[in-house]
Amino acid sequence: MAETEAALSQARPYVAVGGLVGVVVMLMDNPHVIDPLFGSSASVHVFFRAALVAAVVAGLLLALRARRSTVKPAGRASFGSLLAALAFVGAWGVRMAGLSEAALALCGIVFGAGFAAAVIRWGSAFSALDERVALFGISLAGVAAALLKLLALALHDAFPFTPSLVVAVGLVAAAVVPRSTSPAASPVASAPVDRAPFRVLGAFSQNWEIVVGLLLCAFISASQWGAHLTGASIANNPGPESAWGTATGFLVGSMLLCVAVRRTAWRDFKVVYQLAPLLCVASLQLIWFFGALTGTVGRFAFSIPLGCAIAIMAELFWVRLSTGDDASLVATWGVATAAFATWFFAVVEVWPWVGDAAMSTTAQTGMVLYLMAVGLVPVLRQRRRGADEPTDLARLQEERCRDLAERAQLSKREAEILSYLAQGRSAPFIAEELFVSTNTVKTHVRHIYGKLGVHSKEELLDVVHDVR
């Protein structure tokens, strides 16, 4: 019985995050699948406009309040997702009762704030999980969410409310809270608030390829949303074929990540973090060269790489932003949620005024600049590293570092950082090599200093060279 409860407790975080992923998958291309719940695109626009604004405000407020708290993150996530579910169903009640748009906007505000709180709290709580396990788990959640959307699309004609039901069920699933072992048990809510800005900057600077690539995908999705909500003309009309295509692409992308996690040695997995965003954006740029893809097959084909790119970069983004032992993860997730909601809202509102041609040109230009930057930055980094490259270390020094790590009972990550410190590497260099923020590296360095009883890098090097 105890083993069963422990297994369920470990599975619940993935069920909860899977629910959030399911909501995103259902709504990522355009909101036409939930029109039956709201009655019209105009009502959808009122609801989600208010929801996006509320998500921005909620994200910033939670980021500013990222400090020590006695309330568990998972508990707040549960409360937020339940509020979002009630608000989503409440929108249907508002329509049936014939209430004003103000009531619908109020439901949207509650939905946006609740959903943002759930994303922020579960995102920060994931830091308690092993990175590889977390990535495999969220990839499996993506597979399940994509299959569920395909099923909902298949049933849409016979049962128009099926997609809306899936969204509501996903929000309820995100309210699942572990009873014992929980990601909320990590030190996510205990770091000083003055470190939060550094953690936020470090998280985004270390993962800028994924962040910018995901923003480009969000730009395309938001353009489709803008076209649907306003009824304006768009080359790649976001119809049912697009929904099928993005769901299929999301399924393929999630499956590819599952295979990569299982088949790739984790020490080599940083190549996936580097190449995946590049390949995703390159595939979008490549298919854009074929011009406006019209017709059922064309719209379906165009949407597959978009769904695949969203899946891969969103899942990598979730795990990369959730790694580390810094409590300012709540601030990081708050800023990320507010930034993406602001970006999506801006594109949806601006698109009808600018038009399809200008927005398509903007998207293509952005992708070209992104590909150039991704190709150029590693070259510049390599030149900088070459200028600072020290002489090769002897095998004896590596053995001394391992011996010292065992004696001081350093963690695996601390032992790895100790090896870099013994080579004279700086914190920014180590952060780039290990794909963590500079602030996280500095935290580990302070832990190493404390365990070894030293106060500076010079003293640390003396200790390393004195180990017998």
> What's the helix count?
19
Helix content: over 70%
Number of strands: 0
CATH homology superfamily name of the largest domain: MFS general substrate transporter like domains
Distance linking N and C termini? 49 Å
- Multimerization state: single chain
SSE pattern:
HHHHHHHHHHHHHHHHHHH
Number of domains: 2
3D shape:
globular
Largest sheet: none
The fraction of residues in strands falls at under 5%
Mean pLDDT: 79
> Low-confidence parts lasting 5 or more residues at pLDDT below 50?
1-8, 68-74, 178-194
**C-alpha Rg (nearest Å):** 23 Å
Structural class computed from helices and strand pairing: mainly alpha
CATH architecture of the largest domain: Up-down Bundle
* CATH class wording of the largest domain: Mainly Alpha
CATH fold naming of the largest domain = Growth Hormone, Chain: A
